[in-house]
Amino acid sequence: MSAVEARLADLGLTLPEVVPPLAAYQPAVRSGDHVYTAGQLPMVDGQLPVTGKVGAEVTAEEAKGLARICALNALAAVKSVTGDLDKIARVVKVTGFVASAADFTGQPGVLNGASELLGEVLGDKGVHARSAVGVAVLPLDAPVEVEILVELVP
User: Fold this and answer.
1) In contact, 66 and 113? CB cutoff 8 Å
2) 129-147 confidence digits (pLDDT tens)
3) What sign does the CA torsion over 106, 60, 123, 31 have?
4) Residue 1: per-residue pLDDT
5) Per-residue model confidence (pLDDT) at position 22
6) What is the pLDDT of residues 23-80, one digit of tens each?
7) Which of 96, 34, 102, 98 is nearest to 63 (CA)?
8) Count of other CB atoms within 10 angstroms of residue 121
9) Residue 70 in contact with residue 111, Cβ under 8 Å?
10) How many CB atoms lie within 10 A of CB 84?
11) Cα-only R_g, the chain
12) What is the rounded CA–CA span in Å between residue 129 and residue 71?
């Protein structure tokens, strides 16, 4: 077991299976010393636990938990192309999309779910730049979608 996966276990988490693509793309692609993930939805065992807009059908706190699931799915996608999460030198960038009710402005708080998970699991290697974007709708009516860019140890 890698040190990163041991840390996940300490947190009571397990790395899920990679979420299969919903269309014509790959869950993650390696280019040189970087891995780019596709947008990861908060899928659990092939299902979205909740759907709808944040600030309407979904609370900000629920969405924060969903962003955490997205980040976990993104780590699984990274492992699918690296074979080992200990190869992560650092998380460079997190981009998150929040399907938002018209008056919802708490996107940064929602994306803290993903950022905090990466920090808990990777420590200083999980500190990153980030964008938190409100959108009208996401695939499958998901409330949140997260993609990450990681740099690998050369």
Assistant:
1) yes
2) 999 999 999 999 999 999 9
3) negative
4) 77
5) 85
6) 999 999 999 999 999 999 999 999 999 999 999 999 999 999 999 999 999 999 999 9
7) 98
8) 23
9) no
10) 14
11) 14
12) 14
What is the pTM for the complete model shown?
0.97
- List the 144-152 sheet strands across, edge first: 28-31, 34-37, 144-152, 88-99, 129-135
Q: Of how many residues is the chain composed?
A: 154
* Residue listed under structure tokens 């993930």: 37
Dihedral over alpha carbons 94, 122, 37, 148 (to 10 degrees): 0
Pairing of strands 88-99, 34-37: unpaired
Select from 126, 135, 145 the least CA-distant residue to 7. 126
Q: Which of 125, 130, 123 is nearest to 148 (CA)?
A: 130
C-beta neighbour count of 29 within 10 angstroms: 13
